[in-house]
Design a protein that fits this description.
With about 675 residues, this protein is mainly α. It has 25 helices and no strands.
Length: about 675
Amino acid sequence: MIRSLRLLRLALLGLVLVWAMPAPAQSFEGLDTSSSKKKKRGKTSASKKKKRGKKGAEEAPPPESSPLTAPIEATPVAPDAATPAPTPTPAEAPNPIPAPTPPAPAAQDTQGGMGLDLTGEAPKGTSPTMTFDAVDVSGKTADRQKLDVAVSLFKNDQYEQAAMASYEILKDPKMAGLHVEARYVVAKALYRMGLYHSSLGEFSKILAVGPQTKFFNTSLEWLFFISRKTKNESVILDEIARYANSPFPEKFRTEFHYLLARYHFVRGRALDQVGQSDQADTSFEEVKRLASLIPRSDPFYPRAKFLEGLAHFRNGGKVKSADARRGDTNMVSAIEAMKEVIRLTRPGGKTGEQAKLDQSLRELAFMQLARTHYGMQQNRYAIFYFGKIERGTNQWLEAMFEASWANYRVGQYEQALGNLITLSSPFFRDEYFPEALILKAVIYYENCRYRESSLILQDFERTYLPVHDQLQALVKKNMEASEYYSVLADVQKKNKEELSGTEVILERILRLALTDQDLKKTNDSILELEGELDAFGEKGDTFKYSELAKDLLEGLKGQRTVLIDKAGIMSKGKLETELIALKQLLANGLRIKFETTTKEKEFLEEQLKAGGKTAIVKKYRYTVAVADDQLYWPYEGEYWRDELGTYQYTLTKGCIERDTANRDAQAREASSL
């Protein structure tokens, strides 16, 4: 009986416990209006650990790699890296809104889903839902709750919805206190969507508010990430230069110094072009000061050293005529800077984008060393450094052409003409080297080959005089800046097969304008902006037809107009420069033609004095001996790709033996007596 009573009590206790338990709630993803403490008790320790890891990876912006700048060693891992980034200190990430995070899988709705679909990309056979982390709205205003929803959308990789939700806050004047924070979410979301120029515009508006906002420093950091995604860093340089006096985080300081040095270098060169030398001097001194702030072990040091060398070279060429000693000092400093760049960019140990950047910088340093020695009349040193440019690289043809002038100066006519044979090969018919014909005519003239020199000059005039006339007509039109850029834009779209005669050469000149680095980068930015404008059409309809998209498109069109005007001014300037150079070449051709005619006259007169006898041509000694790893092969008009750059011209001199002519004349006079 006692045992039965015990069993009955246990049964009754079980019924009471079952009755006291709460009924299971319906499960779905949405807003959690319960207290944060209760919510945390419901989560497992594993989910807490995962949550903390995600937060730590979100608090710092992702360090993206760049084709323009080297990666920073002490930055967090990239967004697609498998290892989570370390949690930065509050000084590094002062913003309360989490920064971009690697894409995480959306939470799955196991109960059929009752959320609102804003993605438009739900898989077939399932109920589409809007999934995001729960937001604690207890004790918060309605405005704050709206912004928290936008933040949650961003954290769940729903960037279009996050941007539109934040934009709604920006459009409400009653929520002015949250506008900066909302714009920060918009800017980050646009970056994640690949709309980098649009993102830059939003970050610029945050920076314009001033350093008193808590998002000022992190917005400055985002400028660096955008600079690594855009082709033209000068778009970012102007923005960074506005805040040159602002404190930058330690991990970005060297990159900031390098980019600011780039800004002052571009500015100084532009001031030189318009004749404002005094202001240009200040900019170039700033280049050298900023370069000196970057430690030698930093990845940006070689690029900063290269800018420093260019600044010394510019100062050396400027003051050399007024103060030879100071000019020589600057030239020596320029040479030492370039040698340091070459030492730091030796091949080996680096791969991928960094290796390509180092190779390109190394070539430019060799070219600058060669040009510096050439300018100082040290021609054999110049030939040595020109020869360091590897065959087939970007600077190779330019190096061969400039080396030809150095070879001419030291009397190595055979090598100079051999280089010109390579430049005239069918492989490089689209290249523009009009001065090559002038150099060829001068070499023939120096070797008394007057007839050949005259024929070369006639060919030069026949080819380039019509081009000169067309360029002159184009420059004299005084079109708007945008129209000059339109000319270049049309050239990029034309089919070469439709061009003929003079149009082919003019097309080469117009393409040559795009080889100017500043103009090319500006042109790249315009094309990049046009690509971003087209990218809006690939977004979801909800975003594509939103008010935010309309405002962003207007902003991009405004940026494009500014860049087109800038590119147009640069295009006109480049065309004017080419016109002046071509005019000078034509004038030089006329002078050489006059000298050639005079020499031909003297040649005939000396023959007449010699009684019509054939003048004795100087003997020309040459050898077919070559190095052990080479093979002598006579050139018969054919071109082989592997032979380019190895030609040597066998030049016979046409200068008569003047002593022979004089002896003949004296003999005739003696016989007549």
